[in-house]
Design brief:
heterotrimer, A mainly alpha, B alpha/beta, C mainly alpha, A: mainly alpha, elongated
């Protein structure tokens, strides 16, 4: 019934010219793809189990610096293969970071939308919570909760999931208020739509892009936070291995075997750098008004 | 029986807190009464800030009046946001000023035109598809535009899409709030004529809100002029535009460029009004060229003249030609 | 103006109250407050007396009231490690932390702000990109990594500076640099974008069109306007520095608040943990309040009471 109209149908995003990805962003994306691949395949590609102790091969330097090809990144003080531990750590740290970021965005966006929709007392209460959270350096709060409640992995992830919720809430509330003040939300409400339809079908898809960008800002910060906590010995506990606690345990051998610290440190730095660069680029493309 | 009746409605916007805790209200609508007859168009004109948009929203029931009542089809308008109010939307629709803003930029317009039918559970999926094509035709758009997105259409096409959406549930009443102000002048007349045609075809009742007198003249059966939240004159357009009775209407009409006009124009003195600080007595008296002492003390009521024109002026029976 | 100050004070007080409520909730939900406050070795009689005095058998809201009263009284309990009263123990550490925090803040401002302005004035040139890349590296490299690298280079390899402790005045150098780098990097990015935005404003174009020398335009128009958001940013840095101090002090064994927090968490010395939580919150709330008030003073739009902003 509908004929070809002869013009290509363009997707909803407003295109501004050809999509060329800058070289830096390409490299960042490549690194992230590599990290994701390692995380997915960690158990398959690691040469050794992470707890395999080999006291005869302790503190061996990486291949090319005096070590053998059996341990490409050297070994630690118990003879465990650094490369294998690195792979597994990447997986765990990324999993925690993804889980926590998602939790934070969902929680924050939900509260922000609730505040924008209900207004009045509920909004004021949520805003006060946002203020209180923003007034507290997160690590202090995290440490307190870890002290009082212990640090199992689910608790750690849930705790990290609280990070940044107040920022997502502010963004979501601001966007929802802006959308609700005029334009299509008034129109759809005037059409007779109930609140669920309004939010799920109209408002959320329109603010999702901005929320995703907001998530790319907190994601690297969560990686840094988890690494920091694990470095202090208060995050991921052995025998589980995360990037942060590798650095923490390697610290005692900083002068004698720096590779134990440097390998995970490099991975942390490059990964957070890559996410930051990608996030900046995404932000410029999707929503220049943010940040 | 009138389709829509507003009876002495008042509405004030709560203004922001002042630093020391005082709170000034902005009385956007200060005692407006209107009745819309079926199948007819009432034009509501006035400058920005006169309260006409607010009146439109009151007519729709989007906001509830502080005083007075709104009745649709003989029954009181339900409170905004309630299920009854939502159900009533099938019969009352709004056409916005900003067509791009009124449409969700992420959805194709075919889906958006069908949305009211989905919300009110009208028709099967096939029936809706057919109706969308029908509506597109009715507003003068080709059926293959239904897959396009709002930003891919021109301003005029978007507004037609908004009108198509508004008609989807076969409403009785259409409130048009500055429907063509955002469009190019050349398109404006087209869309306004479209509204007139649709009215004839579907028996629509239209409340046409605009600041542009020339457009209102094209489409309205009756015109009401608003100033600072009140109706100051109301009557049949041709007669009113030929010989306005209220000093404000005279000034409004004088402001419309007219190459055939001879003689001096009626000009307004003073600043545009501040709704937060209403003058005493007649709201227009600070700027009125013929104001007398009585105008400052006593607010004039909207009264009918011998020829049916409604005017709110103490001096209305005086010969208007003396201005 | 007075209204503005009062409202800010009220908001700060309310925020503090919420934090205290959170601390109270954490305390009640997790452990027996008596053991936390009095220590696990306290005699049963003392515990019973405590429970009564704190109203632990009373409704929850009354307990909250007792809690606040105890806090205001300065009673934060006793450390499990050495039985000392907590509040003096914690307060003792504050100057040590401040002794690296404040210089770090100055370092961050001293390097970050000029770098950001430099980049803004030469935007889209190689210099701009170089500065921005350095800045991004500065805040994506974790502070503990930077600290360890600095220790590796300056303490282990070169032997110029000690790797930890606070025995000498120069022991503070590496911690200050570590702490200040991240903050400086963030500040550089922020300053650049604030400056770029200000430079894009019509009044800058007007000023230079009037014939003013470019550097006068910068000094008289761009800088003061860019300074306003900068002040708020610097206020937020305080929180970031407090958070950074936790990790940095651990890397360098610097005996400040951060280190105390970490060791207390590790040894489950809950009374100390709670005290630090509340104290740090108080510092943050006070700092934010100061920033708010200073902001209100220097932003002429707020000074003259444009109602929409308040």
């Amino acid at each position: 019934m509908s004929e070809q109209s002869g013009e290509a149908l363009v997707a909803p995003r407003l295109r501004r010219g050809p999509t060329t990805i800058p070289r830096g962003v390409m490299m960042a994306l490549a690194w992230l793809a590599l990290m994701l691949a390692i995380a997915a395949l960690a158990d398959v590609i690691r040469p050794y189990p992470i707890t395999a102790i080999d006291l005869g091969a302790r503190l061996q330097p990486p291949f090319g610096f005096g070590g053998s090809a059996r341990h490409l990144l050297g070994t630690d003080e118990l003879g465990r293969d650094v490369l294998s531990r690195l792979f597994v750590s990447i997986r765990l740290s990324l999993l925690i970071a993804f889980g926590a970021t998602t939790l934070g965005v969902l929680l924050g966006a939900f509260l922000g939308l609730v505040a924008a929709h209900l207004r009045g007392l509920a909004e004021q209460a949520i805003l006060m919570l946002v203020d209180a959270q923003a007034a507290l350096p997160f690590i202090i709060l995290a440490l307190s909760i870890l002290a009082f409640f212990g640090n199992s992995l689910p608790l750690l992830t849930a705790l990290l999931g609280l990070y940044g919720w107040e920022r997502h809430a502010r963004v979501a509330r601001g966007l929802a208020l802006g959308a609700g003040a005029q334009g299509y939300t008034v129109a759809v409400r005037q059409l007779g739509a109930g609140p669920w339809r309004l939010y799920l079908l109209h408002i959320v898809p329109n603010i999702a892009a901005t929320l995703i960008v907001s998530a790319t800002i907190t994601f690297p910060e969560i990686i840094l936070l988890e690494s920091g906590l694990s470095f202090l010995g208060l995050g991921v506990q052995p025998p589980m291995s995360s990037l942060g606690n590798m650095v923490g345990y390697g610290r005692g051998y900083l002068s004698s075997a720096p590779w134990i610290v440097l390998a995970p440190s490099l991975v942390i730095s490059l990964t957070t750098l890559a996410v930051s660069i990608t996030g900046d680029w995404l932000r410029d493309r999707l929503d220049p008004t943010l940040g | 029986m009138s389709l829509l009746v507003l009876d002495q409605v008042h509405y004030a916007y709560p203004a922001r807190h002042t630093l020391l805790g005082g709170r000034s209200k902005i009385r956007a609508v200060a005692g407006v009464s209107l009745a819309l007859e079926r199948g007819r168009t009432l034009g509501l004109v006035g400058e920005s800030g006169c309260g006409k948009s607010t009146t439109g929203r009151l007519a729709l029931g989007l906001i509830a009046p502080d005083a007075g009542c709104v009745a649709f089809g003989g029954e009181a308008m339900p409170a905004p946001g309630t299920a009854a109010w939502r159900a009533l939307r099938a019969r009352v629709q709004l056409v916005f000023q900003d067509p791009l803003g009124a449409l969700d930029r992420r959805l194709a317009i075919g889906r958006q035109i069908a949305e009211p039918m989905v919300i009110h559970h009208l028709g099967t999926s096939d029936e809706r598809t057919r109706r969308v094509a029908e509506l597109l035709r009715a507003v003068g758009l080709s059926a293959d535009l239904e897959a396009r997105y709002p930003h891919q259409l021109s301003g005029g096409q978007r507004q037609r899409a908004v009108i198509a959406r508004a008609l989807a549930t076969r409403p009785d009443l259409l409130v048009c709030d500055e429907p063509v102000s955002a469009l190019d002048v050349s398109i404006q007349a087209q869309v306004v004529n479209l509204l007139a045609d649709l009215q004839e075809e579907f028996g629509l009742t239209i409340l046409f809100i605009s600041h542009d007198l020339r457009l209102v003249r094209l489409v309205a059966h009756e015109v009401a002029v608003m100033y600072l939240g009140q109706i100051v004159e109301q009557g049949e357009p041709t007669a009113m535009f030929a010989a306005p009775a209220h000093p404000y209407s005279q000034a409004l009409l004088a402001a419309v460029p007219n190459p055939q006009r001879r003689g001096p124009r009626a000009l307004l003195a003073g600043e545009p009004p501040d709704p937060a600080a209403r003058p005493t007595g007649c709201a227009f008296h600070p700027r009125c060229p013929i104001a007398v002492a009585r105008c400052r003390g006593e607010a004039p009521a909207l009264r009918p003249r011998a020829d049916g024109r409604l005017v709110a002026c103490h001096l209305a029976d005086v010969d208007a030609a003396s201005c | 103006m007075l209204g503005f100050v009062l409202r800010r004070l009220a908001r700060a007080a309310l925020t503090m109250l919420i934090v205290v409520a959170i601390a109270f909730a954490v305390l009640r939900l997790s452990a027996d407050p008596a053991t936390v406050i009095l220590g696990p070795d306290a005699p049963p009689a003392a515990i019973a007396a405590f429970r009564h005095a704190w109203g632990l058998d009373r409704p929850l809201w009354m307990q909250f009231g007792f809690y606040i009263a105890a806090l205001l009284d300065g009673d934060f309990g006793r450390s499990m490690i050495n039985g000392a009263t907590v509040l003096p123990l914690v307060l003792n550490r504050v100057p040590t932390t401040l002794s690296i925090m404040l210089p770090a803040l100055l370092l961050a401002i001293g390097i970050g702000v000029p770098a950001g302005m430099f980049a803004a004035l030469r935007r889209n040139t190689f210099a701009d990109r170089a500065v921005m890349i350095a800045a991004v590296a500065g805040f994506t490299v974790p502070s503990f990594v930077l600290g360890l690298v600095l220790v590796l280079v300056f303490a282990v390899e070169l032997g110029w500076l000690p790797s930890g402790g606070n025995d000498h005045w120069y022991s503070a150098i590496l911690p200050i640099v570590t702490l200040g780098t991240g903050a400086g990097a963030v500040l550089a990015r922020f300053t650049r974008s604030a400056m770029v935005e200000v430079l894009g404003q019509p009044y800058i174009l007007t000023a230079s069109a009037k014939g003013l020398l470019w550097r006068v335009v910068i000094r008289r128009h761009a800088l003061p306007n860019a300074a306003i958001p900068l002040v708020t940013m610097i206020g937020f840095m305080v929180g970031g520095l407090l958070a950074g101090a936790v990790v940095t002090e651990s890397v360098f064994s610097w005996p400040g608040l951060g280190r105390l927090m970490v060791t207390s968490v590790g040894s489950r010395d809950l009374a100390v943990v709670q005290c630090i939580l509340l104290l740090v919150s108080l510092m943050m709330v006070a700092s934010n309040l100061t920033v708010d008030l200073v902001y209100g003073l220097i932003d002429p739009r707020l000074r003259h009471g444009e109602r929409g902003r308040l």
